[in-house]
Amino acid sequence: MARKNCRKRLTLTKKSVKLYTDDVLSAFYEAIRTNTLDCLHVPHSDVFYVRKALEIKFSPRKFTLKETEDYMKLEGWTD
Question: Is residue 7's pLDDT more than 90?
Answer without folding.
Answer: no
